[in-house]
Amino acid sequence: MLERIIPSTKKSLPVIGLGTSRVFDIKPTTELLAIRQNILDILLDNGGTLIDTSPMYGKAEEIIGRLIETYDRKKELFLATKVWARGKSEGEHQIKESFSKMHTSKIQLIQIHNLLDWKTQITTLRKMKELGEIEYIGITHYKADAFPAMEKIINNEPIDFAQFNYSLGEREAENRLLPLCADQGVATIINRPFMRAKLFSSVKGKVLPSWCNDYGIGSWGQFFLKYIISNPAVTNIIPATSKPKNMLDNSLAGIGRIPDSKIKRKMLEIL
Fold this sequence. Notes:
- The protein is α/β, with parallel strands linked by helices.
- 38% of the residues lie in helices and 16% in strands.
- The chain starts with a strand and ends with a helix.
């Protein structure tokens, strides 16, 4: 799988990760846990490492903890969660709970979810980073109207990651956040790559163009992800899924040729 550099440490990160919003907020039955375990195996088998979650995602952190507590591949994972709280003590308590729920002493990245009380939470995260309790600090949002606030933080605060929405159908980040993050040395995580499945509806009944074969694009999911990957400022993408076959399909998008500017224009003509 293609890897991109995290500017603040010069370490590399595979371009395809796993989002857990909704799809990991489940009852911990044997059947449902086995499916999620299979998804983790497929992620790692195909070169991915990053799992993104949040206290806001119901039982997702707890489910991840159940899966990785005795997982023999736990050390291969890049764990990313968020703090979604107001006030110093509430934020610290929630972060402590995240470590406990995920049965881990190491969370690589903690992000400030939707910028909530970010000035308070970033102080806590900086202290944790200085103490070596986490490796990276980030901010997140999922709407373009939050971009101006994110830009101010990226320009004025030493952060490692910014997570935001970007896709063929939501391209505002191309002219704003992606160039800024590249200039400021901030890694990026892309959410809503399929616009919550809306993009699939837009191509329903359509056949993939023949030139997709030259780029290893075998599905519309890979088509949409390849477009995002073609932007060099994208570090990682976190499509969420509850189906192992989709995890495999998503992972394959991170392998093979990357579309050039000519092919990207053709991709845009599809929608």
